[in-house]
Write a structure and sequence with these properties.
This protein is of the alpha+beta class and 998 residues long. It is built from 32 helices and 33 strands.
Length: 998
């Protein structure tokens, strides 16, 4: 029997069971983390970037240990000091003293009572610090910007790299001191160092308790003073007037900033008062100091600024905020590279003079490159004609790039191509294909690079119900075609390795990995009917040993890594196969563009090109932008299976500083320095030396440079800013009377909610006649549909990145995109034919392109596609091309064209079609089995606008519509006799319609 003072003990069996339970718990908690770290290390080593992970892990471990020891040490010191200085004699309030039990427990294991809270808080502090590894590394390696803020004259690097680190240290200090104070206070209270009054007892604080608590609070107040000092710098990223601009406002600089200095002085006085309590027995001085601090923070820090803002600043905000708006304009245009004269060239009062017909007709660079294939529409045609197998597929939105094409005279010129990789689409596997062996060891890669010249189709469509005409002319580079002599001789795109192991669609398999490699001399990967292949690249993680297999079996929860015969001594696992994810993994400090695209290099390899951004959240006075909101548009909202939205974070500085490539076959990741002057990139290159190749290395690859294009997300961000920041006058900026709007997409069925996306195409460069690959967009007047500006970014190596903004005069109005689209659709001849076509087919309108022609002409072009309303083989075909041209902007000289070809549609609006029909040779390469039309490139004649608008044609259309109505009514009524009569009337109406040229 135990004595009254003996503690309960556990049996040996109980201890063993508890030990096993603890071990299992630790395994469950630590095991997945260990597996993740081990497999990540193997993956980073396989792609040649192990230094990235080693740097991150080392930084995290060191930060965790240092923060945990410091934070835990401060907490432990506070508790330990109180325990060591506890009174020798603790008066007991009575037999029911509630504190006696706690004193007994702590007294039995005093070290545990002090260490447990210290360890717990140390862990919290360590976790916070290790999560901020990027802040620590950029502080250590930070590069100077060579630019200073307008208020304090500090280099921008202080705000980018130093201030976040100091804030991190300060926050950890606040947490540790706060917990140390509470621990010290409770320990003194439990052991009698502090006694509360009441019940006839007198309150009491021992000298040790007074000294220790006063010192802790005094240090806390000193840190608070440091915090007030740092708060001054945060004012330069204030959001007080976020609806107008970001940055320090009149109130922030003239009221809040002085108040921070006053509060800092009061905090120092309060700290001195608490330190004085060490020598003085009177606690009223620190108590009064505390009350003073609280009242000051309320009155000086909150009430005073709010009153000044309401009663002094707002009534005269236009004049008082002028200086600070000017600061915001200067910082924003610098941070986002939209400075007039340096980054952006403005053409004021564009189209004031009428367009010169001779210059318009001679604009071959623009008119001969008008594209009629919309990358977001023709994906179905790619899928129907080029998928080959059910498990191959294409993204819903394809990409646009350019390649050289030979003309009939032997000359070569660049043409736009819709491009896509024929990838594996795991979402299309059949049931019997959807097992582990097939998903991960047989169907491992796609096959082929498919392209179609963007400004041509196989032949002009004369009938919406025809199965010919209006289809892309495919250039196919896959296992069937690349070895043929015709391909080698004629194809403008020469691919040597068409297998696609890394891509956008492939990564949609869950989980995303492929096991490749063979040790028996037999190929096991599907490569075509009766044809197999084995991946021969040296990338991927080796699965040659049991340890690696165990790790990946645990990672994916898949026992086949241990049991399957498909895994052998030469097996390797390929994963993280989406190019954007792959780049983000290698460079976690980069923000990648939401779009990527495949390009064929001179060596015949296919590489995915990914744009990488360096960003900052707080650039003094620069406008803060939400990336996800600024880059959203109608194409993002309907991006489908591979589309992505941008990360949901706010930035105030963006640079497209890195161009990255991912080899579609090997998965090799290469990062290239694109902006040599970006201090953020220079900082990260110091953090991870050797990870990013120099600009000189990039310049040695002209083929890669020739396929680079201005990134969409950056352009959309700059477009959003140019709505306001084309204004450089503070008063005009405040009044917002000359702001612009990103127009809604006229092709989207969303009631004008989603923004119109920008478009890539080749056209005459601004101010010249040479062709140039560009990314363009239009802007309309503020909350009005009329055109206000045309923005374009050069994407060719010559002049890359130059932004041109052509601003229209405000004295008159010019038709905007939605107005042009409505005018084209409601034009008499168009509306009549469109009504007929929509009765039998599904009509889709492609991208509405706004093209500057000549010097002052504005031409709108929009393709119209038709496809069957039902059936699994429906695909869009170019049916008509709509054009809208105002020869003299603002004078009402409007023309609408509607024809099967661009040339005829241009002719209808008064533009000479000769430039649009500039000769270019048809490629003689095989088209992947497509039937070739002998009339390819010979469009059928289109009815003129006078024919379309003739009374006879209109009457025929009306009669046709009535006949269709009778057919529908007869079908719904179920009367076969009436249906027969209705069909006869419909046949007669069709004959009459065709006789009018329909």
């Amino acid at each position: 029997m135990r004595g009254p003072t003996e503690r309960p003990t556990l049996s040996r069996r109980s201890k063993i069971l508890i030990g096993i339970g603890v071990a299992l718990l630790l395994l469950l908690l630590i095991g997945p983390r260990f597996v993740a770290i081990a497999t990540d290390w193997m993956w980073f080593s396989s792609v040649g970037h192990s230094n990235v992970m080693s740097t991150m892990v080392t930084t995290r471990i060191v930060a965790f240990l240092v923060a945990a020891l410091v934070v835990g040490g401060i907490v432990f010191a506070g508790i330990y000091a109180a325990y060591r200085s506890r009174p020798d004699f603790v008066p007991v309030s009575g037999p029911g003293d509630p504190l006696a039990r706690y004193r007994e427990i702590i007294g039995a294991r005093p070290w545990v009572a002090g260490i447990v809270p210290a360890v717990l808080l140390g862990l919290v502090g360590g976790l916070v610090a290790q999560a901020s590894w990027a802040t620590i590394q950029t502080f250590i390696n930070g590069e100077t910007f060579g630019e200073t803020d307008p208020q304090f004259g500090m280099d921008i690097s202080f705000y980018a790299f130093t201030l976040p680190f100091v804030r991190l240290i300060l926050d950890l200090a606040f947490i540790s001191l706060g917990v140390a104070f509470v621990g010290n206070l409770l320990t003194h209270y439990v052991f009698g160092g502090i006694r509360l009054g009441g019940g006839g007892r007198q309150g009491m604080v021992t000298r040790a308790a007074r000294i220790q608590l006063a010192i802790i609070v005094g240090v806390f107040m000193l840190l608070k003073a440091v915090g007030y000092w740092l708060d001054r710098y945060d004012l330069l990223s204030s959001d007080r007037r976020g609806d107008i601009f970001t940055g320090g406002t009149y109130t922030d600089i003239n009221v809040v900033l002085p108040s921070k200095l006053i509060l800092m002085a009061i905090a120092i006085v309060c700290a001195i008062a608490f330190f004085a309590a060490v020598a003085l027995r009177d606690l009223r001085i620190p108590a009064m100091a505390t009350v003073l601090m609280l009242l000051s923070a309320l009155v000086i820090g909150v009430i005073w600024p709010a009153a000044m803002e309401q009663f002094s600043v707002k009534p005269s905000a236009d004049s008082k905020e002028a200086e600070y708006i000017s600061r915001n304009i200067a910082a924003t245009t610098q941070a986002y590279r939209i400075r007039e004269g340096k980054d952006v060239e403005y053409v004021r009062d564009w189209t004031t003079e009428p367009a010169d017909p001779a210059k318009v007709n001679a604009d071959e660079a623009t008119l001969s490159n008008i594209r009629v294939l919309d990358p977001a529409v023709v994906s179905k045609a790619f899928a129907q004609r080029q998928s080959l197998k059910n498990f191959y597929g294409f993204p819903n939105q394809l990409a646009l790039d350019r390649y050289p094409v030979k003309n009939e005279d032997g000359s070569t010129e660049m043409r736009d191509f819709i491009v896509a990789a024929r990838e594996l689409d795991p979402q299309k596997y059949d049931d019997n294909q959807n097992n582990w062996i097939n998903k991960h060891t047989v169907y491992t890669h796609g096959n082929g690079f498919i392209a179609a010249q963007a400004n041509k189709v196989d032949e002009a469509s004369s009938d919406s119900k025809s199965d010919r005409g209006g289809l892309p002319v495919f250039e196919v580079s896959d296992q069937r075609t690349i070895g043929t002599e015709a391909y080698k001789k004629n194809s403008p795109i020469q691919v040597k390795e068409p297998r696609i192991y890394f891509g956008e669609l492939i990564s949609k398999v869950d989980p995303d990995y492929a096991v490749v490699g063979s040790d028996d001399g037999q190929d096991h990967e599907y490569d075509g009917d009766n044809q197999s292949n084995t991946h021969e690249g040296d990338t991927g993680v080796a699965l040659s040993n049991l340890g690696a297999r165990l790790l990946y079996a645990a990672k994916y929860g898949e026992r086949n890594f241990l049991l399957s015969d498909a895994i052998n001594s030469n097996s390797r696992i390929l994963y993280n196969r989406d190019p954007r994810d792959r780049v983000s993994k290698v460079a976690p400090w980069l923000t990648t563009d939401s779009k990527t695209y495949p390009a064929v290099m001179n060596d015949g390899s296919i590489k995915w090109i990914v744009d990488g951004y360096t960003t900052l959240k707080n650039y003094p006075y620069a406008q803060r932008m939400a990336l996800a909101d600024a880059t959203a548009d109608s194409r993002v909202q309907n991006a489908g299976q591979t589309g992505r939205t941008q990360v949901d974070e706010e930035v105030s500085y963006v640079r497209n500083s890195v161009k990255a490539t991912v080899d579609a076959y090997t998965g090799e990741v290469d990062l290239y320095q694109f902006d040599e002057n970006d201090p953020v990139l220079k900082t990260w290159m110091k953090v991870f030396p050797g990870t990013v190749k120099s600009r000189a290395e990039l310049d040695k690859q002209p083929d890669l440079l020739s396929h680079m294009r201005y990134p969409e997300d950056l352009f959309k961000l700059q477009r959003e800013l140019l709505r306001k920041y084309h204004v450089d006058n503070a008063a005009t900026f405040y009044r917002s009377n000359n702001f612009w709007t990103v127009p809604s997409d006229p092709t989207a069925d969303d009631n004008g909610v989603d923004k119109q996306p920008p478009y890539y195409f080749t056209a005459a460069r601004p101010g010249g006649t040479e062709s140039q690959f560009q990314l363009t967009s239009v802007l309309t007047a503020l909350n009005r549909p009329n055109l206000a500006a045309y923005v374009t970014a050069a994407s060719d190596p010559e002049g890359y990145g130059k932004l041109t903004v052509k601003a229209l005069p405000t004295a008159n109005q010019t038709i905007g995109p939605r107005q042009a689209a409505e005018n084209m659709k409601t034009n008499g001849g168009v509306a009549a034919d469109r009504k007929l076509v929509e009765e039998t087919t599904k009509v889709t309108y492609g991208n509405l392109l706004a093209l500057p022609v000549g010097e002052n002409g504005i031409l709108y072009v929009q393709p119209m596609y038709t496809e069957a309303k039902s059936g699994d083989s429906a695909m869009p075909k170019l049916y008509r091309v709509l054009t809208y041209y105002n020869a003299a902007a603002g004078e009402g000289n409007v023309n609408v064209g509607y024809a099967p070809t661009v040339a005829e549609a241009l002719k209808q609006v008064g533009i000479n079609p000769a430039a649009a029909t500039a000769p270019d040779a048809e490629s003689k390469a095989p088209r992947g089995g497509d039937e070739q039309n002998p009339n390819e490139g010979k469009p059928a004649p289109a009815p003129t606008s006078s024919e379309s608008d003739s009374p006879e044609r209109k009457a025929a259309v009306a009669e046709l519509g009535a006949a269709l109505g009778e057919v529908k009514r007869a079908q719904s009524g179920g009367d076969l006799g009436s249906l027969g009569d209705a069909l006869k009337k419909l046949d007669a109406a069709i004959t009459k319609y065709e006789s009018t040229g329909g």
